Amino acid sequence: MESINNNNSQDKVWYITGTSTGIGLDLLELLLNNGNRVTAITRSPDQTIDELKKKGTKNLDKLLAIKTDITNDESVKESIKKTIQEHGRIDVVVNNSGYGLLGAVEELSAEDIQKIYAVNVFGVYNVLRHTTPYLRAQRSGLILNISSYLGYSTIGGKYSAYESTKHALNGITLSLQKELEPFNVSVVLIGLGGVRTSFVNGGNFAVTKNLIEEYNTNQLIEMFKKYSPFAKGDPVKVAQTIYNLSNSSKLPVSLDLGSDSYQIAKATFENRLKGVEENHQLTLSTDF
C-alpha cells in the first residue's frame, strides 16, 4: 500500500483520540516538538495541556485540545468542525481511544458490554464517519487504527468483551482500506502487544461487578495489575513508529508492534493455517 500524503511532516494536521495518557500523550509531545499541528481529543483538555507543559513540550500554540465524548456522535462531529476551522484540513487520523474490561461472559452485564462497545467500536465509527469525507474530498490522508494482538488471538478467557471489540476494529479497518483506496487514502491496522502505560492500573481498565467465584477472575485481575508495569512495549518507541509511518513511502496493511505481539501473531496464524490444511477435505465436502 503506497503512502498518500506528500506534504512535509510539519505541514500535516493530526487528529488523535485518547490523548490524556500513555501512547496518545507521548505522540502529542513528539508531534508538537516536530512542529506539527494537532487536534487532541480528550476527556480532560486542561490535564492534557498541563502534562505537556510538565514535559517541556514545544509549539503548544499548534495544539487544539478539545473536550470530546467519542461515544456521542454530535460531540465528535463538532470536534472535527473545530479542527477544520482551526487547521484548515486533516491529514492523519489516529484512533487510539479505548479501555479494557475483564470478566467471564457469564459475569458480564448488558451495561458492561454496551459501554465497552460504545468506546472501542462505535466511538471509532463516529470518528471515521466524520473524518473520511474530508480525506476523500482532498484525495489524501492516512488513518491509523490502534488495535491489539487480541484482535486475532486471546489471553485464554475472561477478556472476551475487550477482545471482541478489537476483532471488530480489525474488521472495520480491513474493509475501510478497500473503500478508501480509490481515493488515495491509506488505512493501517496496528496490533499492539503489551505496552508499559497506565492502561491497567490507571482509569482505562474496568472489572465487572458481577464476579462469580467459580471463574476465579480475581486471580487474573491481580496478574494483570502485577505484570502491567513490566510490559515489554515502550510507549515512546510506539509513538515514534506511528510518526514514522506518516512519513513512509510505503505503508503496510497491518503492523504488529512488540516482541510479544510478533510471537503471538506468528503462533496464531501458523496454528490457524495448520487447522485449515488438516480439515481441507472436510471443508471442501460441503460444496455442491
Structural write-up:
- With 288 residues, this protein is an alpha/beta fold.
- It has one domain (9-273): NAD(P)-binding Rossmann-like Domain (Rossmann fold).
- It contains nine helices and nine strands.
- It has helices spanning 22-33, 45-54, 73-87, 110-138, 160-180, 217-227, 235-245, 259-278, 280-284, and strands at 13-17, 37-42, 63-67, 92-95, 100-102, 141-148, 185-192, 205-207, 254-257.
- The strands form two sheets. A seven-stranded parallel β-sheet has the order 3-2-1-4-6-7-9, sandwiched between helices. Strands 5-8 form a two-stranded parallel sheet.
- Helix 5 links the parallel strand 6 and strand 7.
- Helix 4 (110-138) packs parallel to helix 5.
The helix-strand sequence is EHEHEHEEHEHEEHHEHH
Overall 3D geometry?
globular
CATH architecture group name = 3-Layer(aba) Sandwich
End-to-end separation: 37 Å
Total number of strands: 9
Helix content: 40-55%
Query: pLDDT below 50 for ≥5 consecutive residues: which ranges?
Result: 1-7
Mean pLDDT: 92
Organism: Dictyostelium purpureum
InterPro entries: NAD(P)-bd_dom_sf, SDR_fam, SDR_oxidoreductase
Pfam family, one: adh_short
Family: Belongs to the short-chain dehydrogenases/reductases (SDR) family.
List the topology elements:
Layout: E1 13-17, H1 22-33, E2 37-42, H2 45-54, E3 63-67, H3 73-87, E4 92-95, E5 100-102, H4 110-138, E6 141-148, H5 160-180, E7 185-192, E8 205-207, H6 217-227, H7 235-245, E9 254-257, H8 259-278, H9 280-284
Parallel strand pairs: 1-2, 1-4, 2-3, 4-6, 5-8, 6-7, 7-9
Helix pairs in contact: 1-7, 3-4, 4-5
